[in-house]
Amino acid sequence: HHFIHEDEERRWQQQQPGVCVITAAEQSVDADDPVRHNEPRISDRRRFSKQGGVPDVRIPLPHHAHVHTHARDGNHDAHLRDEGHRILRAEAHTSKQDVDAALAFVGYVVFGNWSLDVNSVGFYQLAKILVAPTVVLMQYFLHGVTQSTRVKLAVALLCVGVAAASVSDVSVTTYGFSVAFGCVVITALYQIWAGSKQKELHASSMQLLHEYTPIAFVTMLVLIPLLEPSGMGDVMSGSIPSEKTVLGFPLTFGCMMAIFCSTVLGVLVSLSTFLFIGVTSTLTYNVAGHLKTVLILAGGVVLYGDDLNSKKALGLVMAMAGIVYYTHLKIAEKSGGGGGGGEKPESLLPVSLKATTEKK
User: Fold this and answer.
1) Coil, helix or strand at residue 302
2) pLDDT digits over 184-228, tens only?
């Protein structure tokens, strides 16, 4: 951020009287201002112009931007400089939010793979089911968001049904339970922040992903040699790394294509997560995830002839009943019936566009 030197500014003002030029962080500059929290950042610049010649412009800008201020009047100059300092403070806050989201994503990936590595598939699946009720609890303690009794009943019915239909072998150790517990907590936190950070920063899903992804990438790059057998010790000792290490793994064409496809799918999962939570809610995202599980199980029975015992059948019925009941409550809430209660979805539009659309 750069404010032009006073002498340069004075000369510029003599050539351009009464002009004010500001490029500002629309998405975050007023994040800590309770009065203008929801006001579009660039709404009316006539008050900064001595001649009133600056048009009313509404432009969505990135929430990291430089600030250049020019004004002939000393009071205007002081006001604009104060605006710049507020932008600096808001951007520092924004950077911390980016780091929080990046660390939550890294923890979600690391603990998820760790839990699958040390636990049975059945217990790993059970831990994933418990993310939904954990989201309900953490939203209450972190943000004061409460769900109605009927919503909690629908979620409980859904979780019990999915567990009955999909979980069979549940074997766990104390170590595995600890890792799974950490996985559930960090996954719930990541999903909650995927929605709340968009609202706090007044940023769209794509903007938030754009900001935190480089931080997450660097963090992952540092953690890989610490958490995975890298084979660096073999290289340092002059021996050939084992195939079970990162450096010794045989990168055949098939493996490289599998890694590439996995990477593309991972990007789509992250993008769809932020988009879905941004327009709905974290809890609804979990319900949709369980619907996917139900469809997979039912598809296996219908298309591939998987065994359908009474336990799995009852579980599928309970899970679908919970999903239908939850959907009914949310539709009633949208129509003004107040059936669901809880959090409100956030639009994907930037703040200025939302304000313009609402006025229209």
Assistant:
1) helix
2) 999 999 999 988 888 888 888 888 888 889 999 999 989 888 888
Q: Residue 127: what residue type?
A: A
Q: What is the DSSP string of 23-78?
A: ---TTTTTTT-SSSTTS-SSS--GGG-SSS----------SS-------SSHHHHH
The confidence band for 163, taking pLDDT boundaries of 50, 70 and 90, is very high
Q: Rounded distance, CA 226 to CA 244, Å?
A: 15
N-to-C CA span, the chain: 35
Task: Determine the average pLDDT of the residues in 317-344.
Answer: 80
Q: How many CA atoms lie within 13 A of 141 on its CB side?
A: 9
Nearest to 129 by CA among 167, 95, 91: 167
Distance from C-alpha of 239 to C-alpha of 80, rounded to nearest angstrom = 64
pTM: 0.66
Neighbours of 266 (CB within 10 A): 11
What the block records as the tokens of 34 is 């309770």
Residue by residue, DSSP assigns 177-236 as HHHHHHHHHHHHHHHHHHHHHHHHHT--HHHHHHHHHHHHHHHHHHHHHHHS---HHHHH
The residue that leads in pLDDT, 37 or 302, is 302
